[in-house]
């Protein structure tokens, strides 16, 4: 390479700008005449470490499915639909999926694969916005730690299901006369409305969690049995990702496919129950008046946002291990479609069971037979399973094994994302050391969530450490990509990498619709915000202060790294430093030096074409050009 550079400098002059493209491959090839134009950048990129690749394109797809098809589909979606009008919720859900979910998913796949960078380094396209990556990284850390505690609960219920009689299906003497047996045939919500408690609720609160009513006296000590389950959960994650994508890719087949086997078994069982038809029809029949309620649309956005796991950086990380030119357009469509199908499948299963519960209790009100909330997976579902007349233990084992697999699939992605950032930063540290360290830290932090006050802390951290800050960072990410980097530039990247033109649907969503929808959702959440509470009790002041400090620390990353990027620029006016800090790094692009040089030539040719086609530019033209190119 050095000899070639010397030879060119001696000969002088610049070669003609031209590229060639391999037919059908979607990859541009570099002609010898292009080499000198990007030598400087290629030398800069030479320091970048070679990146592992997935064993096959199917491993990548299965990993994305295992990540996105998780507890949000099986646990959250059916009851979000139940609380928002049943079938009426499907319409805003599908609309929001179309204008928010799919565009962001495809955008993040493009960014990760094109740059082969993780959640932080990917913002080399606009260093001023690197804080978005750090904010998402911290939110991901919070989410991964309490997600593991949910996995621990599923394991506890899984092993409890081996008992000859499900331990939550009957009342214990010490619970008093206010307990009603879950296997007695009456629905949970009907019992609660008469100031009774189901044995499933009391089992969770008094036996499994030993839950405290308030945080005034502290959170207590971790449960020994749950600590053991938490350790097993982290050990499972560690073994799967100990060798990076080489090991996690193989496990993805089981993590992605096993839940579907269980869901189809549960589907057959649910649809053969008496009254199942009424429940399914309630799920599929819209209540049109609900479409006029802003809260329904807000819930649809949050459901799509967290179900697909967009704007957390995991999709970017997974895509960064792809081979350049892999068809992420196809994969993005497959995953988003399958995610929707899974949500609908879960809805049919759950509403079929709810229809059966309503049938047994002699009521037509499907919404009255179950209690939603943070503990619904360990109250409502076990309550329904306890009422099965045949083999309740078998269905309980299958159900909680499925929940555990869903949790593992999601947590593997989250921890892998953090691992990738650390490995990119500390290239000389062995991967297994990073993985084991993360797991030990995650286990120690997770102990707080399995204390008597743990569910209170989960509610606190879910809002302040995940939900709220993720909405904020998502908006900044969309602004960074759609307006600072530019939709036009992103579409050029997609054209170079995939050899396809980006449709106006994606262009308009990336530039206008998706950021606007997310901004409206954030404003709505701020306007309707109420003091955070758990089980009807507001958090003590000290916990609310801690919660907002966590939010401030995470959101503060946006401003700290923006200031840092501006400070690192050469001296000059504030405007010039800001302009420099929103320009891509000189080695931004494909990790392969030859592809990087060819990509830079591709951009030069595009700029020359634009210069020939227009002589004057106005504000409207500039805005339109950044969107439609």
From TrEMBL:
Disulfide bonds: 171-179
Any GO MF annotation of the entry: L-amino acid transmembrane transporter activity
Keywords: Amino-acid transport, Disulfide bond, Glycoprotein, Ion transport, Membrane, Metal-binding, Sodium, Sodium transport, Symport, Transmembrane, Transmembrane helix, Transport
Keyword Transmembrane found: yes
Residues binding Na(+): 69, 73, 307, 406, 410
Alphabetical list of Pfam families matching this protein: SNF
UniProt subcellular location: Membrane
Residue spans crossing the bilayer: 58-75, 87-107, 137-159, 219-242, 254-277, 297-321, 333-354, 397-419, 431-451, 463-485, 505-525, 545-567
GO CC term (a single one): plasma membrane
Main localization, broad class: membrane
Protein topology in the membrane: Multi-pass membrane protein
Alphabetical list of InterPro entries matching this protein: Na/ntran_symport, SNS_sf
Classification via CDD domains: SLC6sbd
GO biological process: amino acid import across plasma membrane; visual behavior
UniProt function note: Unusual broad substrate spectrum amino acid:sodium cotransporter that promotes absorption of the D isomers of essential amino acids. Neutral amino acids are the preferred substrates, especially methionine and phenylalanine.
Family: Belongs to the sodium:neurotransmitter symporter (SNF) (TC 2.A.22) family.
Name of this chain's protein: Transporter
Organism: Drosophila sechellia (Fruit fly)
